[in-house]
Structures are given as C-alpha cells and as structure tokens.
Amino acid sequence: xxxxxxxxxxxxxxxxxxxxxxxxxxxxxxxxxxxxxxxxxxxxxxxxxxxxxxxxxxxxxxxxxxxxxxxxxxxxxxxxxxxxxxxxxxxxxxxxxxxxxxxxxxxxxxxxxxxxxxxxxxxxxxxxxxxxxxxxxxxxxxxxxxxxxxxxxxxxxxxxxxxxxxxxxxxxxxxxxxxxxxxxxxxxxxxxxxxxxxxxxxxxxxxxxxxxxxxxxxxxxxxxxxxxxxxxxxxxxxxxxxxxxxxxxxxxxxxxxxxxxxxxxxxxxxxxxxxxxxxxxxxxxxxxxxxxxxxxxxxxxxxxxxxxxxxxxxxxxxxxxxxxxxxxxxxxxxxxxxxxxxxxxxxxxxxxxxxxxxxxxxxxxxxxxxxxxxxxxxxxxxxxxxxxxxxxxxxxxxxxxxxxxxxxxxxxxxxxxxxxxxxxxxxxxxxxxxxxxxxxxxxxxxxxxxxxxxxxxxxxxxxxxxxxxxxxxxxxxxxxxxxxxxxxxxxxxxxxxxxxxxxxxxxxxxxxxxxxxx
Length: 518
Known about the structure:
alpha+beta
C-alpha cells in the first residue's frame, strides 16, 4: 500500500523543477489568451459586509450526578434544588422523582455544568463537558458517578431560553494519569454533550442594499451551490456552510470574504500562484485562490510538480477544498514520506474536505507506519471521518476498543476527549511473572501465580466486597473486557491500570494517552 501511494517519488528533483516551471509558464500564457472573462474583480464581499457569528459559545446548566458510593452530598442552593425538581418531573411522565431524598442519600450530588463549543458547530455535534460539585465538602467525590440527562443554555443569558442549546449525559471521568491527586469534586463527561441548535452565520452589509444582497447570494450560490446564501433583509444574508467546508467553517468564512464581485483582473491568479509557489506558508494567498473557484484548479495542479514540498502541500490543500481530486495523491505521498516533517499537516488536509474511499484507504494504511505519533493521528482522524472504519468492540456501555494488528510497534492509544476509546496497536504480549497493584491494592493483576492466565482481584467500591480472583487468558483484549465489563472499572481507572501495567512490563506495549478535554 505504502509503495502504491509513493509511486514516482524517485524522480530527480533537477528534472522536476524545469517541468514544473514550464507547466506554470504554459498555463500563464494560455490563461492570458483564453480566460480574460469569467473571473470577478472589483470589491470583495469582505469589503462590503462583515460576517457575524460567535467563534465560541459558552454553555452552562445544573444537573445531578448519581450512582455515587456514599460520596455524594445534600448540599445544594434552594434555587438549584427547585430547578432540579421541576426538570426531573418534566422528564418522567406520570412518575414522581424525589430529588431531595436522592441528594440526602449521599448517592448523588448536584453539579454545575459548563462547556465551550465552536460557534459554527452543527446540530448533533458531540463535545466534552465539565462538571463541578456544588458541595464544598472535601469528602464529596464524583468519582464513579453518572450525570443524568441535563440541559445546557447560553452562559449568562438574562432570561433562560425556552429551548436548551444542548443536552448532556454520561459517566464522570476524573483523570488519574497526572502526577498529583486529582480534585474529586471536578470531572468531565467525555463526548457526552450533543448540540441541539444551529448557531446563525450572517453577512451584514455595511449599508442597506437589497440589490447587493441578491448579487452576493447569486455569486455564493454559483460558487458553493443552491441555498448557500439567503437574504433575510436588505442588509442581512444568512449563510449555510457547504459540505466541503463542514470541518473547517472558519476557512469558509475567510473564503467568502475574499470572493470578488464583477470581473477579475488578469493578473490576480498569477500573483496568487507566485505567492504560493514561493514555498512559504501563506494562508491569505491560499484562501484568496480558493475564493477564485474552479478557474484556479489549472494553475494549482501545475504547482503539484514543484520540487518544494510546502508548495505542493499548499496547492494540494487548496485543490481538496475546491473539490478537485487531483491534489489527493500529493497529500497522501507527503503523509507517507518518512522524511517529511509535514506528515500530520498533510493528513489534516486530506480529511478537511470530508470522507472519501481514497482518504479512508490511505488512513487505514497509515495505521501501519512505524512512527507511532503519525499512526495515532491517523487512527484519530480515521474514526473522526467514519466511526465504523474499524471493527471496534464495545467492552462496556460506553467504552470501545479497536485492534490494529498490522501496526509494527505494540502500543495502547487512549482517547481522553470526545469519546472513551482505546486502540490496541501491533502484537501486544502479556508477560508472565508480574504483579501490578493499583489504587492501594483496590485492584491486583497477577501473571505469576497461575501460568498461562491473568488473575484479577478487586474490591467493589460501592458494596465494599472482594471480587475474585477472576482469571482470563493472557490477551490484552480479554483482560480489558474482564476489567471493564465483569469487574466494572470506569474509564479513568481502566486507563490508570493499563498505564501501570505497561510501565511495569506486565503488558509489553507503550501507553500513549491523548489530550485532556479543553
């Protein structure tokens, strides 16, 4: 697979440079003769209107974390308690939920919920949520709890809207991989939030002019398709983000601002091509040439023959955003080039315009690269494009595990944002003759007592009873299923045990944890 994506990489750079230069010069000559019309010039949309939207939306709310092993708290302000009572009654038709009794049992705790979501997010987008116990008692702990379904509203709104902006539910994750003791009153719901409303994206004209608003609509629909723009008043135009910019809405806004009205002057594309071919990162030039539209595909394709990797990458990225398939092989080639420092940047450009069979195939192949950082990035981006791209196994109600046996280096890759998911890379062995004690002996992994098996002993934190010894075959997947399903470890403890098992050598693999929720 890798060799297929790198065909032609052995061509001499000295031979490539004249070819690339000749191609650009030929295009420039043809362009001056044949394309004197069809390109717009004059004022840009950005000079006539400004985009209006929130780059980041702050959400907040209140909720209940239940299922706590006696570490909850009845402490809750009266107004919050009253809100929780009303909300609980509205969610369960014909039944009565005694919120006061639940809180007084110390098996639940009232929490403040907050989240930051992109202002141009789409309905259904998942996001991480932070929860903080309202109780100030040091004995309160959200560890092992579950946040019941709660509603989120814009932060600081003077009047609570009738409709929530998002909902959230799920297990509380308190990270235990850091060096110090975590604050047990604070945690995250990984990927538990779901956006319910679509934030508005408007173009506001500098002055009322319905004719200009209609002209802008026509230009944008000609460029991005029908229903991209809709004048809602002589001064406001509502925008819809097209599919090719779904994963990069901010870039779409920049492209819209750079689009010109009227006829384009003949040297505009020439100047942009020269800036991109200079081999420097020039986002402004990239955005401007994407604003030109399909007429830029020819000169950008010529730049794919350049000796300079940054030039090829920039041209290929623009081509992907313009809907042309010609840039994808270049991006794949860079992503597979072990000498390149732009492998991850190339991957990002591959996935930005959305999934395709070729992109999915390339990302699958990159899982087998020897560079674990690149392989783990390919793993994350592959699942971001298609959750079913790997035959993951559900090992608990909310934890997924994927196996990537083709990877050359054994590793466990753990997500800590957007979803609770593990990737088992390569052929991971369980070593004999090792014992791992986790959490003050709350859980013990033993491969020394009974050859050919992993023995697990644990203590149930809720019932305070011993579990085990329970045994399983010396397989990483079987051990994870035992820990998450039969023993009932939460995701945070599962990651803590696996990292300790890797560090001690019981599991012969590198442990790599992804970034924490923001």
